[in-house]
Amino acid sequence: xxxxxxxxxxxxxxxxxxxxxxxxxxxxxxxxxxxxxxxxxxxxxxxxxxxxxxxxxxxxxxxxxxxxxxxxxxxxxxxxxxxxxxxxxxxxxxxxxxxxxxxxxxxxxxxxxxxxxxxxxxxxxxxxxxxxxxxxxxxxxxxxxxxxxxxxxxxxxxxxxxxxxxxxxxxxxxxxxxxxxxxxxxxxxxxxxxxxxxxxxxxxxxxxxxxxxxxxxxxxxxxxxxxxxxxxxxxxxxxxxxxxxxxxxxxxxxxxxxxxxxxxxxxx
Amino acid sequence: xxxxxxxxxxxxxxxxxxxxxxxxxxxxxxxxxxxxxxxxxxxxxxxxxxxxxxxxxxxxxxxxxxxxxxxxxxxxxxxxxxxxxxxxxxxxxxxxxxxxxxxxxxxxxxxxxxxxxxxxxxxxxxxxxxxxxxxxxxxxxxxxxxxxxxxxxxxxxxxxxxxxxxxxxxxxxxxxxxxxxxxxxxxxxxxxxxxxxxxxxxxxxxxxxxxxxxxxxxxxxxxxxxxxxxxxxxxxxxxxxxxxxxxxxxxxxxxxxxxxxxxxxxxxxxxxxxxxxxxxxxxxxxxxxxxxxxxxxxxxxxxxxxxxxxxxxxxxxxxxxxxxxxxxxxxxxxxxxxxxxxxxxxxxxxxxxxxxxxxxxxxxxxxxxxxxxxxxx
Lengths: 268, 377
Hints:
The structure holds 2 protein chains of 2 kinds. By secondary structure, chain A is α+β, with helices and mostly antiparallel strands. Chain A is built from 8 helices and 9 strands. Chain A folds into 2 domains: 3-79 and 116-217, Alpha-Beta Plaits, CATH 3.30.70.20; 227-267. In chain A, 34% of the residues lie in helices and 16% in strands. A 3-stranded mixed β-sheet of chain A has the order 8-1-9, covered by helices on one side. In chain A, strands 2-3 form a two-stranded antiparallel ribbon. A two-stranded antiparallel sheet of chain A has the order 4-5. Chain A is elongated and about 105 Å long. Chain B has helices at 2-6, 10-32, 34-37, 48-60, 63-73, 80-104, 113-116, 123-150, 153-161, 163-185, 201-228, 234-262, 267-270, 274-294, 296-299, 302-326, 340-363, 369-376. Chains A and B meet through helix 2, helix 3, strand 6, helix 7 and helix 8 of A and helix 2, helix 3, helix 5, helix 8 and helix 10 of B.
């Protein structure tokens, strides 16, 4: 069964222990940032920050609210990055994580452009750069552990488990307290489903989440790539046919010209 | 002596200067990385190099397969004289694409991984394999010019024997990768603006490349006329020009029907500011050339043919920049304008190619006169 995480924004207190745990487990360096006028820090995910808590200040239910959202790779069911990757360095595993093999990567950055969530990042400051993103702690999962961020979360805002069960759990929570949540599990259907899913008290577009269709973003690409073998054979056959046709037409017209010349000679 | 000083004209010196100017940032890029030499970022991971060198470079090299196909497959002998220059510029165009990729890739020393780790679902994989193979095909298609120069009869005979399969292979490979450059953008339905995103992007990219092929040949041969003095028959140029409105007409029809089917025609008037980019590309590169190339008076004037072909080229460049950069959303909170070093590297690479063209015209039999004479004589 594929593993997944359900993030409940109503349980998150914005402590950012997940950010710290992620940096520790992945041995990522701290980044020097400047004060942006918010507790949200660092301001963006990068090759050195795989996850961060996004802080949204808004008015909800007639009072000021701070709503948090943990951002990281969504580990899509049909990942655009894995379809994009020229060398197959990015792969969706049956267990859930979308993993990256830096022994294959050539640094083309198509994954960064293709990702609908803007997740894969690049080591721009290095002469020998790699792509970096959340690994869903595939290494820890292989050893029977939960991801570092889930293990460290003090409030249970992050719940790790089988994807189908977590969807059922999300539905249960929404049904139990419908005024606490919007009726939407983000990631259940978006881009064909993701391994990371969200519950929120406010509509997701207010948290800056992209509004995405439920069909995988890879669908048109798959169709186009499926047409390649027939197009290859078709064009090759058509071109050979045209060559034969025009060559033959030329021969016939030459032969006719030859006949006319002969006739002309006879008349003479 | 006097003649020798004359034979290194101002143009060649300028080109050599640009090549050297472009080498400095290349060295810096390998020493300090992409972040130090470009304005690329996590929000704009593909920039000027991908839009200009890859997207425009490949499309503008379409003259090679369209002309080779027209002459050798469709037996349009009239255009024999322009095939060799068109194949050379295509070959140089593709070489330039590969060189630019060696600068753009994060790990260019692993570019050969594309040959051993196959991801057959990736449009970029298809582009890579086709570009690689087609560059080799173009080198072979052009090789007779070198063999004739040195009078190597055996290799010449071999190439002549496989010429038709080579040309067919070239057309097949071009069809595949010109279109799959469009397929690459199919992965971005949410970030590419609806005026450009379409399930038929591969077909649109192929059609516009076929249309720009003859325009590029008019453009290049007019310039080489002025620089090197081989004058082509006006009949050849106007014949090429006559084909362009049909291809562009089909392209325009496809674009409009596609928008209509998607129900997005209204965006042409409401999608500000992107709709202005669309109108610019379509007016300059499609509608004006269709009208102008249809006029007999335009087709009788070398100067007007040249400027109309420039319009087609500009329109194509606009289209590729729109689809791969200007209408492709950045991640929120980022901005991008190319660093001067990005521009300098691209300019240097183009100058490289132009220098090779200068050398080829000086030392190689570029027009087909010799071959034609040998065949008939």
